[in-house]
Write a structure and sequence with these properties.
- This protein is an alpha/beta fold.
- It is built from 14 helices and twelve strands.
- Strand 1 and strand 2 form a beta hairpin.
- The N and C termini lie far apart (60 Å).
- The structure holds iron/sulfur cluster (SF4).
- The site of iron/sulfur cluster (SF4) has 11 residues, from loops.
């Protein structure tokens, strides 16, 4: 049996999440023990990893189908020579597609919309996903993460317009439970905060995290006093394994709601069947499909992950025709610098968009309709020209 095959026999429910992190694959030398590369490929991948490190949990690696070069899990986890392309055939790229830098209040606090504050709690993740839009900070030296959570909580306390807080990263659930409890405690008595979200990809890539009973107790205690949501990030039905299902069940038993924010990615979920199976799979394990994000024009990502909008909206529309009401609740979204934009549909040559959040300086733009001239290549708002109805 191959070394990768051996991983498939491990009972991951019995593995301690903190100890297991030490077995993550984070060098090409270790990766070579599981995946075959030619000499040329190996050299290129070493260059890739110099720019964007690898970090792959053994659990997630075990989901790869060794006999399928086009396996979606492989594309999500393994470095690829396409990552050397900084600006691709599909147009310009940036390191900050979401405009985070403009709304950085220091000490890890991003305040983009009046009602929401986001705290970048860590730059570490159990896996460094190849499509990550925070590629510029994840696993790399940066000054964007929170240094003093009490100061971040103080900022939120002073800004009474903030009704909800998103604890994000990196992946905040890689922080130890004791610290997560302290973080939540600093928010629990801020009256104007209605609810808190912890954004995490661990249910999909590191479900062992939810076999820590103390974490579940921490969720349950907090959720009794202030509503807690867990936005997660499943991209493909192959990530919905038995252990992921059990992890989600354990979270739901604490009373916490789990919503999914997938990213639409070429070679991962860019077919009608992929979207249909993903959304049905999520509903079946009690996760609400919430957003399907258009892949952002991120450097080293756009070139090989972004699906053109014309092709994308057709796939999403056809999938929605097959899905029941709960499975098709998700919105197809561009997380643009000007605010979130829903991709509603298309005519022969126009894309129909609706802005659903706007920046505080332009409140009148929230909920406006936009009609954009559409061609076969456009992948982002800035690639299209606004036209009339
Ligand atoms: S877990 Fe999330 S933040 Fe971390 S690398 Fe993956 S997509 Fe990026």
């Amino acid at each position: 049996m191959s070394k990768l095959g051996e991983l498939k026999n491990i009972d991951w429910t019995k593995i301690d999440w903190q100890t297991e992190l030490k077995s993550n694959i984070n060098t090409i030398d270790t990766l070579k023990q599981y995946i075959d590369f030619s000499e040329g490929e190996e050299k290129t991948l070493r260059d890739v990893v110099d720019n964007h490190p690898i970090n792959i949990p053994r659990y997630y690696l075990s989901l790869i189908d060794e006999n399928n070069d086009k396996d979606p899990i492989r594309k999500l986890a393994l470095p690829n020579e396409d990552e050397l392309v900084v600006a691709g055939a599909m147009g310009e790229t940036t390191k900050d597609p979401y405009g985070d830098d403009k709304h950085d209040k220091g000490n890890g606090v991003l305040h983009k919309y009046p009602y929401s504050a986001l705290i970048v709690a860590t730059d570490y993740c159990s896996m460094y996903c190849r499509h990550c839009f925070r590629k510029a900070i994840v696993g790399l030296p940066n000054d964007k993460t929170v240094e003093n959570f009490q100061c971040a909580a103080e900022y939120i306390r002073e800004h009474k317009e903030i009704t909800n807080v998103i604890i994000s990263g990196g992946d905040p659930l890689l922080i130890n439970t004791q610290r997560i409890r302290k973080i939540l405690q600093s928010l629990v008595d801020i009256e104007h905060v209605n609810y808190v979200r912890i954004g995490t990809r661990t249910p999909a890539v590191y479900p062992m995290r939810f076999f820590d009973d103390d974490l579940l107790k921490c969720f349950e205690e907090f959720n009794k006093r202030k509503t807690l949501y867990l936005p997660t990030h499943f991209n493909h039905v192959n990530e919905i394994t038995d252990i992921a299902k059990e992890a989600v069940l354990r979270i739901r038993q604490t009373g916490v709601t789990v919503n999914n924010q997938a990213v639409f990615l070429e070679g991962v979920n860019d077919s009608v069947e992929d979207i249909e199976n993903l959304m049905n799979g999520l509903v079946s394990i009690g996760v609400n499909p919430y957003y399907l994000y258009q892949c952002m024009p991120v450097s080293r990502v756009r070139h090989h992950f972004q699906v053109p909008l014309k092709k994308g909206i057709d796939i999403v529309d056809k999938a929605k025709q097959r899905l029941d009401g709960y499975a098709k609740r998700f919105k197809f979204i561009m997380g643009h610098d000007i605010g979130k934009i829903e991709i509603c549909g298309r005519t022969e040559d126009k894309l129909i968009l609706k802005q659903i959040h706007s920046r505080p300086e332009e409140p009148e733009k929230a909920s406006r309709m936009m009609f954009m001239k559409l061609d076969d290549k456009a992948g982002w708002l800035d690639d299209m020209q606004e036209v009339g109805l």
